[in-house]
Design brief:
By secondary structure, this protein is an all-beta fold. The chain has 2 domains: about 230 residues, no CATH class; about 60 residues, no CATH class. Helices cover about 0% and strands about 45% of the residues. Strands 8, 9, 10, 11, 12, 13, 14, 15, 16, 18, 22 and 24 form a 12-stranded antiparallel beta sheet that branches. Strands 1, 17, 19, 23, 25 and 26 form a 6-stranded mixed beta sheet that branches. The protein has a two-stranded antiparallel ribbon with strand order 2-3.
Length: about 300
């Protein structure tokens, strides 16, 4: 029997467009805000917080136009907006059986896991699997407790039959050998912190079909990756997408960026994942198949 092994890299990066800000500069220096004021300390900080304070000499105010905003007062120009983006993939080879799930705690081996690792619990691994992703908060004797579970609209039910826990700590994906009798799956999880009033969007695209030399795997076209058919696609855990079908159907990846997760306001530790699915037909050519998948996080304006 021919081997069809599928491996590919996942790249995450973000685009952030800050507000325009005035500055004075020379060859060696830059003054971000050309203001003069009296009183107050430049910064105060502790282990968890940073405070910028001043004594305002006059009444503060602001003015704005379509493209600019002018704020009166010392330090008024500072806007510590952030967008952070973390992407990790499932370590399929490090999966371990899950025997029970109660609230935030799953019963499974803790080998190789550390606090703050992302993990996935997957019910009935395969074409119709149900998954949830969480960050490890604590480890017990044969138990793993997470901060919160993020699922795709359905909570996994673990009964110990074909249920697994996977570390989500890799930067590349290895789906493994395929069979015409089953659908192979793997997860790519991502977490965003966005201090932006209009939230963010995550988009996905590929550099071309999943391929090996001149052979490639067909994109899914009927909404479901099915065992015995040569198909490849993905589905998102975000169930509120309006500009793509990744939330309702197994959807083909293309070279055009498509939405797989969105938020409309300021949010921290916003977590989602995509499930990549691949299947082969009996006539599919053997080989090592690969391609590059990219995820982009950008602020909404």
């Amino acid at each position: 029997m021919c081997s069809r092994n599928f491996t590919f890299a996942v790249v995450g990066f973000f685009v952030w467009a800050p507000f325009l800000q005035a500055a004075m500069s020379s060859t060696n220096f830059e003054i971000r805000w050309d203001t003069v004021n009296t009183g107050g300390s430049d910064t105060g900080s502790s282990t968890s917080y940073q405070l910028r304070d001043s004594t305002e000499a006059v009444v503060g105010g602001s003015a704005s136009s379509t493209t600019y905003q002018l704020l009166q007062g010392y330090r008024s120009g500072i806007d510590d907006q952030i967008l952070t983006f973390e992407v990790r993939a499932q370590n399929t080879s490090s999966g371990r059986a899950a025997t029970a799930l109660s609230g935030l705690t799953v019963t499974a081996s803790t080998s190789g896991l550390s606090v703050n690792d992302l993990i996935a619990v997957v019910q009935d691994v395969g074409a119709s699997q149900v998954a949830a992703v969480g960050r490890v908060a604590s480890l017990g004797s044969g138990t793993i407790t997470v901060d919160v579970w993020k699922n795709g609209g359905t909570v996994p039910t673990v009964d110990g039959t074909n249920d697994y826990v996977y570390p989500i700590t890799s930067t590349s994906v290895a789906i493994g050998d395929l069979s015409a009798s089953s659908v192979a799956t793997t997860l790519v999880a991502f977490e965003v912190n966005a201090a932006n009033d209009n939230g963010y969007v995550i988009q996905i695209f590929e550099d071309g079909n999943l391929r090996s030399g001149s052979s490639d795997i067909n994109d899914v076209s009927d909404g479901t990756v099915t065992a015995g058919a040569e198909e490849y696609g993905a589905r998102s855990s975000d169930t509120s997408l309006s500009s793509s079908t990744f939330d309702t159907a197994d959807t083909a990846l293309t070279t055009t960026a498509s939405d797989v997760a969105t938020e409309s306001g300021v949010i921290f530790e916003s977590r989602n994942f995509i499930t990549l699915k691949a299947s082969m037909a009996a006539a599919s050519a053997g080989g090592d198949y690969s391609h590059l998948v990219s995820l982009i996080a950008s602020g909404n304006y």
